[in-house]
Known about the structure:
alpha/beta; six-stranded parallel sheet; 16% strand; DNA-binding
Amino acid sequence: MKRTTIKDVAERAGVSTAAVSYVLNGREGKVSGDTLLKIKEAVAALNYIPDYSARSLAGNRSNLIGVVIPQTEDQKRLLLENPFYSDLICGIESELRQRGYHILISGVDKGQSYLDLTMQRNLDGAVIMGIYQESFYEELKKVEIPIVLIDSYINDDSFKKIRIDDELGGYLATKHLIDNGHTNIGLVTGSIRKDGVVEKRYLGYKRALQEANLFYDHDCVLEGAVSYEFGLEAGKLISSQHKNMTAVFVTSDMMAFGVINGLREEGLQVPKDISVIGFDDISLADIFYPRLTTVHQDIKARGIEAAKHLMDVLARKEDLDTGVVLQPISIIERDTVRKLN
Amino acid sequence: MKRTTIKDVAERAGVSTAAVSYVLNGREGKVSGDTLLKIKEAVAALNYIPDYSARSLAGNRSNLIGVVIPQTEDQKRLLLENPFYSDLICGIESELRQRGYHILISGVDKGQSYLDLTMQRNLDGAVIMGIYQESFYEELKKVEIPIVLIDSYINDDSFKKIRIDDELGGYLATKHLIDNGHTNIGLVTGSIRKDGVVEKRYLGYKRALQEANLFYDHDCVLEGAVSYEFGLEAGKLISSQHKNMTAVFVTSDMMAFGVINGLREEGLQVPKDISVIGFDDISLADIFYPRLTTVHQDIKARGIEAAKHLMDVLARKEDLDTGVVLQPISIIERDTVRKLN
DNA sequence: TTGTAAGCGTTATCAG
DNA sequence: CTGATAACGCTTACAA
């Protein structure tokens, strides 16, 4: 089946390709009402579908937004199994689709630059999730497209950042435990890297402890991978070695599930024997048993927000406003924290 | 930053653009060893990155594979929240990336055709998940690219199908319950549509019942949406109205979680009071409490299989072999089925 | 307001 | 084995 081109449309409407192009791109003001009508008729009659490759090549937008998501350790797979990322993508996609954009999902291999993809596909913009090495961001600056960072505390005016206040979240979670009468509170966390979300949550934990004049015991923090598996391990460890804890703050829901199951495998009940509070409020938090008390953030909303910003910049051709957007968080009380007082 | 083009490479190597193009596309046999070397040097030195838009326009591959996934009822969002689909995508992506392809994820709005996207983006191939109306497949045939169907029982030689034996799965699941001494077995299922996976699973359920000379009671099947929410509802319903059942076969894990939680909310324990077996073995099945006994299928493997087939066809330029690939399934025994005998 | 035509970066045909 | 050169479909000065 031969492709219907802009030329065909122009012919049928009895106008030039330029006129058709104008109409197609919303510059309807550039043509007369009469030709506008004729063109619209022709487009509909011929069921014309523009070729985005050609459009992209001709120097315009590709209508493609790159979405970078973290990968598994071995770099073989995207971390899509983590509902946090799929929710985020869900939000981004739904917003972008309405505006005629598509998303190109990918990971970035270690030590690699994102420039390649950007050039190859002529991306119009990008959303970067996760945390990378300094050099990655340096490279990223060379790309001349608007970029939104999710979950990054990097302080650079080249990027728009959409975040939550992770420190506050860590503080609130810990305080929630303290308010419920817990004084011996452990921490299970992903690896604490400078300026990462995890570090902030950890800092919040420490602040809450300090404020309540509780002793910070470094032996009570278990640091590892942000995964269900590590949580499981940590849960077992806690039950065997740290019997004195009455509560644990876990810096991500997936890990928290692991902790609870690990505890259970060793015969400890949550929240009867030990309380657990998570972070993220992924949809599973409400499905898991016992239902997980956690720090809520609206994940999809973050995706939508990211997409909207990109669209705004792209539409108005303004410079990417370089600020930080903070999305609200709150404690969702469910069934994994026991009141001691 | 000015873009490095194939022309720049040709200039630096002192050859024509054609020669460079040959080398870039693996037809290295078409140039002499000497020029090959010079070209390789130039590509590396200039850090040349091909423009896929131009390549696509010039009539070749776009190196883009479309992936269609079902949407929420309101058509606003992709069903990415369902781990089944994200796992599948994970598999497809990992396989395609290694071959230099990218995936374009999208839904298809009701009554819409997929032709549009295919034309717009010059897709090289597509993977279609979910089940659509007859007319959708009719339209799809007009697209002249290889297409793989996942989860569809449509009988059409234009498409490659990658499936599991859903009827057998339903049979095995039900038989597993029977073998454990259950005789009064309910069914919670998504809506039973002709030739859908759900119908097959339902048929398997009936066959197992029949084979064991058990009475098929239509009142014991609860039909609704394939969602956690409906499962929850069904669980509550079962506890209030169908106390005589000792076991339930639920046609998807996500629903099974709902059923178990619904039962629990009404004070019934799984598997003590009632046994539950699911279908799919999504990763959560092992995280949920109690750990879900279910029909296992390797979801990622299906994604990988789909991707591989597409790559094979695209590479060899052969016709898409139109067969059906059946992936193995098996019962995974965990903690939600109680032995009565 | 309209049309012409020169690119955009690649591939592929077709002579040398 | 190599190198011009004409597509591919679209956008956008620029000219009419």
